[in-house]
């Protein structure tokens, strides 16, 4: 007689499974108490896959892993989205007892593609970059990065059978700072357990040049060496720069040398005074900058320095004398005020007003002197 018949623990136990498309799903059914009753796995279409250790469905992807009275484990390899659904484990008691496990299959998103990039783009253009990925389940998330910094795009999700097509758009108003910038679209998805899928496009922007002149001396003096550099930044690179002086060609002097973007004076003199202009351009426009050169006489600069020192010394002396006068006058006034108050106090007892008090105080002072003389 089988003592396990009718025991309440005689139920099949299963677990839901999640597997990535193309992976392998292991489906396990266990029974805590079993009276040698067979276990069976069937698919969502109610087709029997295995009855005990006997294979019932001709599918090379489905194999037996372990079969005993207490466990039936099977594996499904190369899982596809069509394998998703409710699987049933049956224990053939009277009545038959079943347990259901749901197999979730994750759709792996394809590598994203970026469209809408015009090469080269022009400064001032408005362009829309669109990133798209197919085949994700559930719908993937798309994230945009400008170099390494994340920026926000506009996302759109469309169902395509059991999977989803996801798009994300990025609106750009192109300027010269976008030249050479890498825009990356990254796919985030639960099925991508390792490095995420991503695509990158580097923006090339054409723009008109901007020009500035850098000079090597703050105060150019006669006989000194001076270098003017015409710094121009544009894409494409500007044509060779053109130098002019006071609106005309540069004078033909041995002391004045033009090499590429640099204008060099080997030894300055007063005849070099003037407005120097450099100009650079490409097919998008032309830009220029000016530098006004005034060559100083070193001797005059020294004389000016002496004059300034003399003036500074005189001003310092005047300020010092003024401060001394203010201090002396302040002390005199303070002392006079103290004497006035003291004398007023001495004669205040018998005086009708302050002036009389002072006079009385002076009189008392005189009597005191007389008394001193008397006692001597």
UniProtKB/TrEMBL annotation:
<dbReference type="GO" id="GO:0007156">
    <property type="term" value="P:homophilic cell adhesion via plasma membrane adhesion molecules"/>
</dbReference>
<protein>
    <submittedName>
        <fullName>Cell adhesion molecule 2a</fullName>
    </submittedName>
</protein>
<dbReference type="InterPro" id="IPR013162">
    <property type="entry name" value="CD80_C2-set"/>
</dbReference>
<feature type="domain" description="Ig-like">
    <location>
        <begin position="12"/>
        <end position="104"/>
    </location>
</feature>
<dbReference type="GO" id="GO:0016020">
    <property type="term" value="C:membrane"/>
</dbReference>
<keyword id="KW-1015">Disulfide bond</keyword>
<dbReference type="InterPro" id="IPR036179">
    <property type="entry name" value="Ig-like_dom_sf"/>
</dbReference>
<keyword id="KW-0732">Signal</keyword>
<keyword id="KW-0393">Immunoglobulin domain</keyword>
<keyword id="KW-0812">Transmembrane</keyword>
<dbReference type="InterPro" id="IPR003598">
    <property type="entry name" value="Ig_sub2"/>
</dbReference>
<dbReference type="InterPro" id="IPR003585">
    <property type="entry name" value="Neurexin-like"/>
</dbReference>
<feature type="transmembrane region" description="Helical">
    <location>
        <begin position="309"/>
        <end position="329"/>
    </location>
</feature>
<keyword id="KW-0677">Repeat</keyword>
<dbReference type="Pfam" id="PF07679">
    <property type="entry name" value="I-set"/>
</dbReference>
<keyword id="KW-0472">Membrane</keyword>
<feature type="domain" description="Ig-like">
    <location>
        <begin position="209"/>
        <end position="294"/>
    </location>
</feature>
<dbReference type="InterPro" id="IPR003599">
    <property type="entry name" value="Ig_sub"/>
</dbReference>
<dbReference type="Pfam" id="PF07686">
    <property type="entry name" value="V-set"/>
</dbReference>
<feature type="domain" description="Ig-like">
    <location>
        <begin position="112"/>
        <end position="204"/>
    </location>
</feature>
<dbReference type="InterPro" id="IPR013098">
    <property type="entry name" value="Ig_I-set"/>
</dbReference>
<dbReference type="InterPro" id="IPR013783">
    <property type="entry name" value="Ig-like_fold"/>
</dbReference>
<keyword id="KW-1133">Transmembrane helix</keyword>
<dbReference type="InterPro" id="IPR003006">
    <property type="entry name" value="Ig/MHC_CS"/>
</dbReference>
<dbReference type="InterPro" id="IPR013106">
    <property type="entry name" value="Ig_V-set"/>
</dbReference>
<dbReference type="InterPro" id="IPR007110">
    <property type="entry name" value="Ig-like_dom"/>
</dbReference>
<dbReference type="Pfam" id="PF08205">
    <property type="entry name" value="C2-set_2"/>
</dbReference>
<comment type="similarity">
    <text>Belongs to the nectin family.</text>
</comment>
């Amino acid at each position: 007689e089988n003592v396990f018949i009718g025991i309440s623990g005689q139920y099949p136990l299963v677990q839901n499974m999640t597997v990535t498309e193309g992976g392998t799903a292991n489906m396990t059914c266990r029974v805590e108490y079993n009276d040698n009753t067979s276990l069976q796995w069937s698919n969502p279409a109610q087709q029997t896959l295995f009855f005990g250790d006997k294979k019932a469905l001709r599918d090379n992807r489905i194999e037996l892993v372990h079969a005993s009275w207490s466990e039936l484990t099977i594996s499904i390899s190369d899982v596809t989205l069509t394998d998703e659904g409710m699987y049933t484990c049956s224990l053939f008691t009277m009545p038959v007892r079943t347990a259901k496990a749901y197999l979730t299959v994750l759709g792996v998103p394809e590598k994203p593609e970026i469209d809408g990039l015009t090469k080269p783009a022009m400064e001032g253009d408005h362009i829309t970059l669109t990133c798209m990925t197919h085949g994700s389940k559930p719908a993937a998330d798309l994230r945009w990065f400008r170099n390494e910094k994340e920026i926000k795009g506009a996302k759109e999700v469309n169902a395509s059978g059991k999977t989803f097509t996801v798009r994300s758009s990025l609106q750009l108003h192109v300027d010269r700072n976008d030249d050479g910038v890498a825009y990356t679209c990254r796919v985030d998805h639960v099925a991508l357990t390792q490095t995420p899928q991503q695509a990158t496009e580097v923006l090339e922007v054409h723009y008109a040049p901007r020009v500035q002149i850098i000079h090597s001396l703050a105060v150019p003096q006669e006989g000194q060496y001076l270098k003017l550099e015409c710094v121009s930044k544009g894409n494409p690179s500007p044509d060779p720069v053109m130098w002019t002086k006071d609106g005309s060609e540069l004078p033909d002097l041995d002391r004045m040398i033009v090499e590429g973007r640099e204008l060099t004076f080997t030894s300055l003199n007063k005849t070099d005074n003037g407005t120097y202009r450099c100009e650079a351009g490409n097919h998008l426009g032309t830009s220029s900058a000016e530098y006004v050169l005034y060559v100083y006489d070193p001797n005059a600069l020294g004389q000016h320095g002496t004059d300034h020192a003399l003036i500074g010394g005189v001003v310092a002396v005047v300020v010092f004398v003024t401060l001394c006068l203010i201090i002396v006058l302040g002390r005199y006034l303070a002392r006079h005020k103290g004497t006035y108050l003291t004398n007023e106090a001495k004669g205040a007892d018998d005086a009708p007003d302050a002036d009389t008090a002072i006079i009385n105080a002076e009189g008392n002072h005189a009597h005191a002197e007389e008394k001193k003389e008397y006692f001597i």
